[in-house]
């Protein structure tokens, strides 16, 4: 078992029915848990990336929806269902790219539909069970990804990663960092180069924090140092997470991932995408159909700086994700094993 150095990224307080998350906007300087039970605060937490990473926002949405439903006070099933559907729509609108968000909310609504015949009390208890199961499944799936991914690693390997697809992007373990943690549990020592990941710095702020808290040798580099590090020959593999995988294997992940996949090809370094099946969207044919979230100009212009570091006369383009074509992906590491894009 991974030694528990950090609390769960997202969980449900089963006594008070509150959603509990690590506020990731405060990391690495402050590790603070916050409790949420209102629609506007849960939506704000997802939009502002207090909770982020595809699996984590899926779990937060499921447990958040339950926290809301437990407080409706409705005694009529029809009114309850109407409110539940409206709240699920509001949560689903917070971030468009990660498949896990709509996947988890659809599961919750399916569960409500199946149980509405039993009255409001039965509905609430079924939704609680489904929300908790979403969290527990996430831990098991990430652990399985870690086990399969660990088979790709040997003692002394150095892995490169982008953004944060570790424990902070799921409930525990994460996806791209799960193989590193499972390897460490088995006594296989690896080290990690973590790309800083402009503009929100998930690699610098989050990946470096969680890896070092868990005793993993970590080096943070700026995004524009990736080619130089790969050219040095010290990277044995690149592991990334993903937000949505199209049916043909094209993969949306944090902006910069596509660049890294091209570099991996150039330097003949294997490029692995760690993907729970809940992130695969079989209804989206190719990467061209994936909606890419556009974020505020301020994240590039002024966030992290006392004064704006880009003149207001310049426009800003700030897509949160890019799409890596399937042909650049060596394999997907899933909870069902290691699969080529055509085998998903
Ligand atoms: O914008 P973020 O921080 O939510 O983006 C996260 C990523 O791109 C992760 O790589 C992805 O969600 C996979 S998380 C296991």
Q: What is the topological layout?
A:
Layout: E1 10-13, E2 18-22, E3 33-36, H1 39-47, H2 54-69, H3 77-92, H4 99-115, H5 120-150, E4 158-161, H6 178-185, E5 191-195, H7 202-213, E6 217-221, H8 226-231, E7 237-240, E8 244-246, E9 251-254, H9 257-266, E10 271-274, E11 280-281, H10 298-301, E12 321-324, E13 331-334, E14 337-339
Parallel strand pairs: 4-5, 4-7, 5-6, 7-10, 8-11, 10-13
Antiparallel strand pairs: 1-2, 2-3, 8-9, 9-12, 13-14
Helix pairs in contact: 2-3, 2-4, 2-5, 3-4, 4-5, 5-6
The structure holds 5-S-methyl-1-O-phosphono-5-thio-D-ribulose.
Question: Which short descriptors sum up this protein?
Answer:
alpha/beta; 38% helix; 344 residues; seven-stranded mixed β-sheet; Four Helix Bundle (Hemerythrin (Met), subunit A); globular; binds 5-S-methyl-1-O-phosphono-5-thio-D-ribulose; Rossmann fold
Question: What this model shows, in words?
Answer:
It contains 10 helices and 14 strands. The strands form 3 sheets. It has a 7-stranded mixed β-sheet with strand order 6-5-4-7-10-13-14. It has a 4-stranded mixed β-sheet with strand order 11-8-9-12, with helices on one face. Strands 1-2-3 form a 3-stranded antiparallel β-sheet. Helices cover 38% and strands 16% of the residues. It has helices at residues 39-47, 54-69, 77-92, 99-115, 120-150, 178-185, 202-213, 226-231, 257-266, 298-301; strands at 10-13, 18-22, 33-36, 158-161, 191-195, 217-221, 237-240, 244-246, 251-254, 271-274, 280-281, 321-324, 331-334, 337-339. The mean pLDDT is 97. It is α/β, with parallel strands linked by helices and 344 residues long. It folds into 2 domains: 10-143, translation initiation factor eif-2b, domain 1 (Four Helix Bundle (Hemerythrin (Met), subunit A), Up-down Bundle), CATH 1.20.120.420; 145-343, Rossmann fold. The longest helix has 31 residues, at 120-150. α5 packs across α6. Bound molecules: 5-S-methyl-1-O-phosphono-5-thio-D-ribulose. 5-S-methyl-1-O-phosphono-5-thio-D-ribulose binds at residues 49, 52-55, 98, 163, 165, 169-170, 174-175, 202, 241-243, 253-254, 320.
């Amino acid at each position: 078992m991974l030694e528990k150095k950090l609390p769960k990224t997202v969980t449900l307080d089963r006594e008070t029915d509150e959603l509990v998350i690590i506020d990731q906007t405060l990391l690495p300087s402050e590790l603070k848990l916050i409790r949420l039970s209102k629609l506007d605060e849960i939506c704000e937490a997802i939009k502002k990336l207090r909770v982020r990473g595809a699996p984590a926002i899926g779990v937060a949405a499921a447990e958040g929806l339950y926290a809301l439903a437990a407080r409706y006070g409705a005694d009529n099933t029809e009114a309850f269902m109407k409110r539940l559907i409206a709240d699920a729509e509001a949560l689903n609108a917070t971030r468009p790219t990660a498949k896990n968000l709509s996947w988890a909310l659809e599961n919750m609504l399916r569960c409500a539909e199946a149980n509405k015949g039993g009255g409001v009390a039965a509905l609430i208890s079924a939704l609680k069970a489904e929300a908790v199961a979403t969290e527990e499944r996430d831990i098991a799936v990430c652990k399985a990804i870690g086990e399969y991914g660990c088979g790709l690693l040997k003692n002394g390997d150095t892995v490169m990663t982008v953004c944060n697809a570790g424990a902070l992007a799921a409930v525990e373990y994460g996806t791209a960092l799960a193989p590193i943690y499972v390897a460490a549990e088995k006594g296989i020592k690896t080290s990690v180069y973590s790309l800083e990941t402009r503009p929100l710095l998930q690699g610098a702020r989050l990946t470096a924090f969680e890896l070092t808290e868990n005793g993993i040798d970590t080096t943070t580099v700026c995004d524009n140092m990736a080619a130089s590090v790969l050219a040095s020959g010290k990277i044995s593999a690149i592991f990334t997470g993903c937000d949505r995988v199209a049916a043909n294997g094209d993969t949306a992940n944090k902006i910069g991932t596509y660049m890294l996949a091209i570099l991996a090809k150039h330097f003949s370094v294997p490029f692995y995408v760690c993907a729970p099946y809940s992130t695969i969207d079989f209804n989206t044919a190719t990467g061209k159909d994936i909606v890419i979230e556009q974020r505020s100009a301020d994240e590039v212009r002024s966030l992290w700086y006392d004064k704006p570091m880009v003149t207001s006369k310049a426009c800003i383009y700030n897509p949160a994700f890019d799409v890596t074509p399937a042909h650049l992906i060596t394999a997907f590491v899933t909870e069902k094993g290691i699969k080529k894009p055509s085998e998903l």
